[in-house]
Amino acid sequence: MKIAFVSLNTYKPTNAPLGLVYLSTIIKQKYPSEELRIIDANFEDVEEELKNYSPDIIGITAMTTDYGRAIKLAKKIKNIPILIGGVHITTLPNSFKDCFKIGILGEGEYILLDLIKIYKKYNKFPKEELKKITGLLFLENGELINTGRRELIKNLDEIPHPDRSLINKGYFKKEILEDGSVGIRHNMIASRGCPFECVFCSTSKFWAKKIRYHSVDYIVEEVRILHKKYGVNYINVPDDLFLTNNKKARELVGALKKEGLEKIKWGVQLKAELINEDLLSTLKELNVVRIGCGFESGSQKVLNYLKKGTVNLEKSKEAVRLMIKHKFLVGGSFMFAVPGETIEDMYKTLDLIKEFKKIGAKDLSTFVLTPYPGTEIWEIAKQKGKVSDDMDWDFLRQNSEDQALNPILLDDDIDMKEYHKFYKKRGELMKSFKIDIIKRDLKKRPFWVLKRAITKPKTTFNIIFKKILYG
Ligand code: B12
Ligand code: SF4
After folding, report:
1. How far apart are CA 205 and CA 376, in angstroms?
2. Under CATH, to which class is 173-469 assigned?
3. Whose CA is nearest to atom 3 of ligand 2?
4. Which residues sit with their C-beta closer than 6 Å to ligand 2?
5. In CATH, what number does 2-146 get?
6. Residues 44-76 pLDDT 10s
7. How confident is the model at residue 16 (pLDDT cuts 50, 70, 90)?
8. Whole-angstrom distance, CA of residue 275 vs CA of residue 136
9. Is 143 helix (H, G, I), strand (E, B) or coil?
10. Which atom of ligand 1 sits closest to the CA of residue 372?
11. pLDDT for 422 beyond 60
C-alpha cells in the first residue's frame, strides 16, 4: 500500500509540517512494509507529485488557512480515498465536504493506525467499520456521521520521535538565525494542549484544556537526534507553555549538559506573567537566545477581554525589562481590531510597542485579529454574519493587505478614516523593526543576505515588499 501525506501550507517555508511527520513515523513503525511519503508544497508541485507517486490513500493536513486549497485539490483527485485532518476540520466538523472520504478529529496517531488496519483488511473503508472507530467524520446517504472525540494519549512519550528523514532536506539548510548568527534552525514540539482559554485561540478546544508534556528524557533524545543527525543548532519550540517553571528548566539544563548538548541555542515562547529573575537565569544557562511572548495589547481593558483577566500589563512590562536586562532577544506579538477596542486602545498598543523598542525589544510583530473556528471570537463573527461554516477560507489568511484595512471584527462604530490613519502609523513603526534586522544582517552577514536574495528570491521579495514597505 502507498500512502501520500500532503501539506499545503507555504506561509513560512522554514517550518516543517511536524503533524504529518508524527503520523508517518508511527505508521512506519507499526507497518514497516508500507510505502509512504510526505508531499510538501514548500518544495514540490503537489498535484504533479501525487500523479507521479500514484498513492492508494491520501492524507491532507489543514489549518483553516489551508482548507480552501485542500478542497480544491481533493476535487481534482478521482478514485483515491482522501483523509482530511488537522485543526480546521476538528474545530469545525460541519465544514466537511464530500470530496473527502474521512475527516479525522483531533490527535491523529492512533486513529490513523485503526484506519490503515481497516484498509489493509478490506482494501477500502467500509462505513460499518468506520462507525466502530472513535474520532471520525464521514458522509452516509448525505448525512454527516461524527463518531465523537477520542480520548487523548495519556503518556505523550509513547509516540515515537518524529522521523525527520521523511521531510525535505531543505528544512536543514543554514540560514541567518534570529540572533544574527548563522546556523540550522528547526521546530520541536514539547507539549500538547493549554489550560488557558484566550478568546482568539482554539488550542484548548483542539487538544483539550489540559497540557501534556514530553518528559525531559524524551526531549533530550530529540535534541540529540536533531543535532547529531541533522546538524541543528537552534531549536525553536512554538508551544506557549514549554518552560513554565524553574524546576523543569533546571532539569533540562542538567540533562543536556550530561549529554554534551548544552551549546544548542533555543527560541522559546513564555507567558510573560511566569517570567522572573530565577527562571531567566536558568534559561540563560539553557542557552535560550530568544523569548517570544503574546503581549497582544497595550490596553488593560482589551487584554482583560482577550485573555480573560489572566494578564496584567504592568507584569508584561516588568517581564520585558527583565528579559532585556538578561540580554535575551525579545520577540512578541500584538493584535488589533478586537471587539470593544477603540482607536485610543490601539494607540496604547503602539505606545507599548514603542516603549518596548526603546528599551531594546527587537523582534515584535502585529496581527489583525482573525476569527478561527472553535474560538469565542469565531462565534461573534458568525453572529455578525462575517464568517460561516461554508465560506471562502482564503479570506481568513493573515497575509492580505485588504483584510488588514478592513478587519472582520472591527467594531461598526469605529471611524474607518481614523483606523486607516492608525494602521499607517503602525506600519511605519513595524517597518523600523524589519529595517533594523536587515541592517544588522547586512553589517554582520553580507554574504548570507546576498545568498538568500539569490537562492530565495521569493522570500527576499516578501521581506522587502510586504514586511518593509507595508510593515
Ligand atoms: C508551528 C505552527 C505554525 C507554523 C507551521 C505549521 C505547519 N506547517 O505545521 C507556521 C509558522 C507556518 C504557522 C502559521 C500560521 N499559524 Co500556526 N501554528 C503552529 C503551532 C504552534 C504548532 C503546529 C504543530 O506542529 N502542532 C503539533 C502537531 C503534532 O499537531 P497537528 O499539526 O495539529 O497534527 C496532529 C493532528 O492535528 C492530526 N492531524 C493533522 N493533520 C492530519 C492529517 C491526517 C490525514 C490525519 C489522519 C491526522 C492529522 O494528527 C496530528 C498528530 O496528532 C499551532 C498550535 C498547536 N499547538 O498546534 C499553530 C496553529 C496551527 N496556527 C494557527 C494560526 C492561526 C496560524 C496563522 C494563521 C497565523 C499566526 N498568527 O500564527 C499562520 C498561517 C498563515 C497562512 N496564511 O497560512 C492556529 C490555527 C487555527 C486554525 N483554525 O487554523 C493554531 C492552532 C494556533 C492557535 N492556537 O490558534 N503556524
Ligand atoms: S494563546 Fe497561548 S495561552 Fe492563550 S489559549 Fe492559546 S495556547 Fe493557551
Report:
1. 11
2. alpha beta
3. 196
4. 194, 196-198, 201, 203-204, 240, 294
5. 3.40.50.2300
6. 999 999 999 999 999 999 999 999 999 999 999
7. very high
8. 40
9. strand
10. 83
11. yes
